């Protein structure tokens, strides 16, 4: 099936793939890759090279219009061929989703101040929504949000605690979600701010995102009314504007990661011998790679199906939840088989397969664990079945 900007997306994708394979992949063992993501110096160097190659923020065109979701899928899969590709090309989370949201909701003044530095790759951002589970916050249920926003003259005063805030350390732009009398609200903030204190960086299984994942305390953060994003009480609606395509963007990027793992495992199986023949000629190995090829194609089709729904103007929440579950689980199986095919080499750091496995494993949790999406889908199935006249 063709789509309106297919030719343009293919041309951009070719340039991106060439850059990621020939330039970015060479940085995958750089000592500036730290426990909580690539260092600011490495991010800057990679983005300077992406800018010079003409692949900075490639899914957003010079006139600030976006490729279609199908076009974006083609390009973001190419950036994902290295865990550093989205960092270099400025297509990674949370910036990609934040740019999409600001492009849809922000005022002209807010776009000039907060969006343009993100699109240019000069700044990074953070999305402050997730809270600790239990008494201190909402966990995976944003309707239970405890972070508050209280009106004080022409300002809002925000207090609360957030966790798993990707990229907060080193970000320049923040989008903070809090609950006011009118309902959930979103606010734009300049970072760093003395009122937003990073309590600690969480030690997580993944390590590809700049700034890592932080737990933060927000204490008496004063935000001018002019920096509210959209209208009071519309925060959950704006979150869905962001989250549906952002879930799909994760699928796009991690599809590239799993594709790269499959390439490395295939090369290994086609060049190593055991018991007198190439590994791939052993059914136990060859069948795993065959299953990977099947699941990569199925994941690609699911991504394209969801992208088409979003491009058609549909809400996309159901489609993106289904895609997130299906693709994250499939790509994890792909990465797991790649480790198994490579045996001891698969768990060593002689190749990046072990890192790709860790990154994809985290994907099953981030942007909503598989079980939360299944629960949400089950509720919708029940609701549809119980409608009068069913």
Write a structural description.
By secondary structure, this protein is an alpha+beta fold. The protein has 3 domains: 6-92, no CATH class; 125-231, Butyryl-CoA Dehydrogenase, subunit A, domain 2; 236-385, Up-down Bundle (Butyryl-CoA Dehydrogenase, subunit A, domain 3), CATH 1.20.140.10. The chain has helices at residues 6-22, 40-53, 69-79, 85-89, 95-105, 108-119, 235-271, 283-311, 317-342, 344-347, 353-363, 370-385; strands at 33-34, 37-38, 125-128, 148-152, 155-166, 173-180, 183-190, 196-201, 213-224, 228-229, 273-274, 277-278. It has a 4-stranded mixed β-sheet with strand order 3-6-7-10, with helices on one face. Strands 4-5-9-8 form a 4-stranded antiparallel β-sheet, with no helix packed on it. The chain has a two-stranded antiparallel ribbon with strand order 1-2. The chain is globular. The two termini are 34 Å apart. The model has no long low-confidence stretch (mean pLDDT 96).
């Amino acid at each position: 099936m063709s789509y309106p900007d297919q030719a343009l997306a293919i041309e951009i994708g070719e340039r991106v793939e060439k850059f990621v394979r020939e330039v970015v992949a060479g940085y995958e063992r750089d000592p500036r890759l730290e426990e909580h993501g690539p260092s600011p110096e490495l991010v800057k160097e990679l983005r300077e090279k992406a800018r010079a190659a003409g692949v900075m923020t490639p899914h957003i065109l010079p006139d600030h219009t976006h490729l279609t979701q199908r076009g974006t899928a083609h390009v973001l899969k190419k950036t994902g061929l290295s865990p550093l590709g989205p960092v270099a090309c400025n297509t990674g989370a949370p910036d990609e989703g934040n740019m999409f949201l600001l492009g849809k909701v922000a005022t002209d003044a807010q776009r000039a101040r907060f969006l343009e530095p993100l699109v240019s790759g000069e700044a990074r951002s953070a999305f402050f929504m997730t809270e600790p589970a239990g008494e201190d916050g909402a966990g995976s249920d944003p309707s239970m949000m405890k972070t508050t926003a209280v009106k004080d003259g022409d300002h809002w005063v925000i207090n609360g605690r957030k966790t798993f805030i990707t990229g907060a350390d080193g970000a320049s732009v923040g989008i903070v979600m809090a609950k006011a009398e009118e309902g959930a609200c979103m606010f734009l903030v300049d970072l760093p701010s003395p009122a937003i204190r990073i309590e600690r960086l969480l030690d997580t299984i993944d390590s590809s995102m700049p700034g890592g994942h932080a737990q933060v305390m927000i204490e008496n953060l004063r935000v001018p009314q002019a920096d509210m994003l959209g209208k009071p009480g519309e925060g959950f609606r704006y979150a869905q504007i962001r989250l549906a395509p952002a879930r799909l963007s994760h699928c796009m990027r991690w599809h590239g990661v799993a594709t790269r793992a499959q390439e490395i495992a295939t090369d290994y199986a086609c060049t190593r011998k055991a018991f007198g023949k190439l590994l791939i000629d052993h059914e136990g190995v060859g069948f795993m790679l065959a299953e990977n090829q099947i699941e990569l194609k199925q994941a690609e089709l699911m991504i394209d199906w969801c992208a088409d729904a979003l491009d058609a103007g549909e809400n996309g929440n159901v489609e993106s939840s289904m895609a997130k579950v299906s693709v994250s689980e499939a790509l994890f199986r792909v990465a797991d088989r790649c480790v198994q095919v490579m045996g001891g080499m698969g768990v060593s750091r002689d190749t990046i397969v072990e890192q790709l496995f860790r990154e994809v494993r985290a994907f099953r949790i981030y942007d909503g664990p598989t079980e939360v999406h299944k629960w949400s889908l089950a509720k919708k199935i029940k609701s549809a079945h119980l409608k009068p006249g069913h």
